[in-house]
Amino acid sequence: MKTTGKEYGLQINGEVDERYHMEKATQAACDYLNDAHKKYENWALVAASYNVGMGKITKELERQKADSYYDLLLNTETGRYVFRMLAVKDILENPSRYGFNIRKGDLYKPLDFKVIKLDTAVANFADFAIDHNVSYKILKHFNPWLRDSYLKNTARTVYEVKLPTNSNYELN
Fold it and tell me: For residue 38, what are the CA distances in angstroms to 32, 61, 63?
């Protein structure tokens, strides 16, 4: 959610939306989950709050005079969300129990990136991409948080643009 993202330090506007920035959004999500766990001391309530917000969970706990996620009547979407998260957790912890035999060779190899620090405006990201030996498609794929084809950056914020070091990188 936009409000929660901003509360956790993500920049969100017409040109930049850091909810799509893998590292920053992951850090914000971890911070949220830790804050929610400090508040509720219960991971099921934390997962539910991640779906509907801490305000809604707190309100429903008080309104329904409940102290457990499993005693709350919440919307169907949140109910499915929590149980899906529990299922994913169990599958990741016990893949062979569910028929997943993951070998080291089956895993994706880490990508090598170069990071370009950007503290000025960019008139045209297509030109920027060409200047850095990648296509516009590659630039946007690895930086989906850049929401437009330009960046005004009047505040001169320092952004880190990630580009694969192999200029022949192809998207499937």
Answer: 10, 16, 21
Question: With b meaning 16 or more CB within 10 Å and e meaning fewer, what string describes 92-124?
Answer: eeeeeeeeeeeeeeeeeeeeeeeeeebeeebee
Measured at the CA of 144, the angle between CA 47 and CA 91, to 5 degrees, comes to: 35
Q: Which residues contact 29 (CB under 8 A, 6 or more apart)?
A: 50
Read off the pLDDT of residues 114-156 as tens digits, 9 standing for 90 and up.
999 999 999 999 999 999 999 999 999 999 999 999 999 999 9
- Domain count for the chain, please give it: 2
Could you tell me if 74 and 144 lie in one domain?
no
Residue range of the domain that includes 152:
113-164
Going by C-alpha positions, the residue among 72, 53, 51 that lies closest to residue 62 is 72
